[in-house]
Amino acid sequence: MDKKKLVYISMIASPHIVKFCAYLRKYYDAEFYFYDSLKGGQSFWNVDLGEHCHVIAAGFKWKCKYFTWSVIRVLRHEKPDVVMLGSFSVPANILAYWWARRHGCKTIVFTERSRRIVDGKLRTYSIGWRILHFIYRNVDRIFVVSNDAVSQFRDSFHFGDKVKVCDYPADIDSYFNHPLRGTKEEYTIIYPNRMTGIYNPIMAVEIFKKVLHRFPKTKMVVNAAGELRKDVEKRIRELGLIGNIRFLDDVKKWDDLGTVYRESDIMILPAAFSNGNYTLLECAVSGMACIISDKVMGDNAKILCQSGGGFVLPVDIDVFADKICWVIEHPEVLKRMAEINRENFRSYTMAETAARYHALIEED
After folding, report:
1. What CA–CA distance (Å, rounded) separates 268 from 292?
2. Kind plus residue range of the DSSP H or E element containing 262
3. 58: closest CA among 48, 71, 45, 47?
4. Could you say which residues of the chain have pLDDT below 50?
5. Distance CA 97, CA 105 (A)
6. Concatenated DSSP letters for 161-204?
7. Is residue 237 packed enough to be buried (19+ CB in 10 Å), middle (13-18) or exposed (0-12)?
8. For residue 225, which phi and psi values (nearest 5 degrees)?
9. 274, 238 in Cβ contact below 8 A?
10. 111 three-class SS
11. What is the pTM of this model?
12. Is the dihedral of CA 102, 106, 112, 113 positive or negative?
């Protein structure tokens, strides 16, 4: 029997989504389309799109709000049975949704929790969301990334039982094979997230300074991207840490991340807010001790906290520094936490995630 045609339309061609297309094609004749790609740029998200991932002809873009009439051309060409959209509020997605509904396609919107960028607070049923609810009132499914996002879309935004939990695809399969950490002369701390305000990169540097005072051989590596790069560099100079902290400028492609993770021992994220960043999942499966703030949302953070696979702490420099030092003083916990996390997150592999998508899409 022929497979159903599935078209997924999203904003940026991220490496993990591009890879996921191949796994979903086990169940569907899947084609993925993106409004933008970093292909040809300097970002390590520069990946080969392959045969079944495409960039839609350029239209208009304003603050990640894309609009192009080309989505209609794409859908007419593909003649899909299922249309899955990444985000509610992208104007071109609304256009694609209207076309899909008119032509009898099953429609799905995949989304994170809706929050205000400034302070991370969840959005309420505002005028904007009332309009979006009216537009998408007949959508077949809404996939949210974690259990703690369900109530917002089911209850606050009134989409009811259409809301299902479906994980964001994570490219972690090879990380299960990373060696277990243990006692060593020099430990490496990694701050793997973008240098943006809500993730507190300057605080991460200040935490490291305190750790270095007690363990002078400790090193730190930092994600090279983000608008606070210059501020972080300035703070590093002020604290005299130029020779102790390395920015990950040498990460040129997505697969380079595996080497960085393999060589790191402790991951920190002292975020003021995070929607549930997938660097946590990547680092946990790789085998690091993960130390994050209690402002990190999502199922991964809850699993980490409840299972003993990591540490969830208040946003405090001294508390973070003390916990890092405790891990260094008790290296045996690294092996135990890696084993716990690999067991807990085994179902997050690409193949398992694709199987869940298929089950939920086909659910009556």
Report:
1. 6
2. helix 257-262
3. 71
4. 40-42
5. 9
6. GGEEE-PPP---GGGGGSPPP---SS-EEEE-S-S-GGG-HHHH
7. exposed
8. -100, 155
9. no
10. strand
11. 0.89
12. positive
